[in-house]
């Protein structure tokens, strides 16, 4: 290995060690918490910490942006040195960090605590029924003993994606009804990096604002079929975020916190189906998926 190659390897290793994934996961959790509290504030007319969370989210956004700038600067330097195509270069891995269980994300080995029962009634199940059109289990019925109550939103995402790929709305409803609100709302935090990566693989390049129409065409029909009760605005907002289009919230009443979480999980399954991948590819330890080549003409846009 030449001196230049060794320098490139060290720079690439430094880039890979930047905690972009962890910061991205924390950012999405803050955004999810802010959306939930904003909805509660709309219902109760009490600020309840929304301004404080807004400040924390802004700091996390700046940190994530700074880390990405550092990675891009390293990538630009490597390209200028003729090392951009060297073996071992890896695409960004935020999606893997988002799908890892909580103890792994924080480097601890403590057993994950089981979530407690809902204290405000079965509002999660009621909203899932409205979105999917599938009724909640009758009172007294119990969920299948498959570990669905474990509180692992990433595992729930894989099960939802499998149901979406099968086109089975009844299965989708059962999976979402079988968990509590804490696990279900966690989908809003784990899906954004996954959606960004899947959309990039489908498009053949990093999602851009001009890709909004193409992603909408690829997804909206299947999403509406599986979620007949969801508002089109929810999917539009998700696609805007994937394509890094600024989302305007001024004058818009906060939506129900379950809508974004459920729709994002279904959109994940739809993009997987478009790519011909199964839910197992969402395992954070799965081999790196093969990215599609850009379609003719895309490289010259």
Q: How would you describe what is shown here?
A:
It is built from 13 helices and no strands. It has 301 residues and is mainly alpha-helical. The chain folds into 2 domains: 1-90; 94-103 and 120-301, no CATH class. The longest helix is centred in the N-terminal third of the chain and has 31 residues, at 50-80. The radius of gyration is 20 Å and the shape is globular.
Helix amount: 55-70%
Number of strands: 0
Q: How many helices does DSSP assign?
A: 13
Tell me the distance between the termini. Answer: 37 Å
Structural class from helices and strands?
mainly alpha
Task: Give the structure's gist in a few sentences.
The protein has 13 helices and no strands. With 301 residues, the protein is mainly alpha-helical.
Key attributes of the depicted protein:
mainly alpha, 0% strand
Set out the fold topology.
Blueprint lengths: L2 H15 L2 H25 L5 H31 L13 H6 L2 H4 L17 H10 L20 H13 L3 H9 L3 H5 L1 H17 L8 H15 L5 H11 L14 H19 L26
Helix pairs in contact: 1-3, 2-3, 2-10, 6-8, 7-8, 7-13, 10-13, 11-12, 11-13
């Amino acid at each position: 290995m030449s001196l230049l190659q060794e320098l490139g390897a060290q720079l690439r290793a430094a880039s890979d060690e930047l905690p972009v994934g962890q910061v991205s996961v924390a950012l999405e959790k803050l955004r999810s918490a802010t959306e939930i509290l904003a909805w509660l504030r709309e219902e109760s007319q009490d600020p309840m910490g929304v301004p404080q969370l807004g400040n924390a989210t802004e700091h996390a956004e700046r940190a994530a942006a700074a880390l990405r700038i550092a990675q891009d600067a390293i990538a630009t330097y490597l390209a200028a040195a003729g090392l951009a195509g060297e073996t071992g270069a890896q695409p960004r891995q935020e999606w893997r960090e988002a799908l890892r269980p909580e103890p792994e994300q924080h480097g601890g080995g403590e057993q994950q605590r089981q979530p407690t029962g809902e204290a405000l009634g079965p509002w999660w199940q009621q909203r899932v029924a409205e979105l999917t059109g599938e009724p909640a289990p009758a009172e007294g019925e119990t969920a299948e003993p498959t570990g669905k109550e474990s509180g692992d939103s990433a595992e729930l995402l894989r099960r939802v994606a499998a149901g979406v790929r099968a086109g089975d709305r009844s299965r989708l409803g059962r999976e979402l009804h079988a968990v509590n609100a804490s696990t279900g709302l966690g989908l809003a935090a784990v899906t954004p990096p996954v959606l960004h990566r899947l959309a990039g693989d489908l498009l053949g390049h990093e999602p851009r604002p001009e890709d909004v129409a193409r992603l909408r065409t690829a997804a909206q029909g299947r999403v509406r079929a599986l979620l007949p009760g969801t508002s089109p605005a929810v999917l539009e907002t998700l696609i805007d975020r994937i394509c890094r289009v600024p989302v305007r919230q001024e004058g818009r009443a906060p939506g129900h916190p379950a809508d974004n979480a459920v729709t994002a999980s279904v959109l994940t399954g739809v993009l997987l189906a478009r790519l011909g991948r199964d839910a197992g590819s969402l395992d954070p330890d799965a081999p790196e998926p093969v990215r599609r080549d850009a379609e003719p003409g895309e490289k010259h846009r």
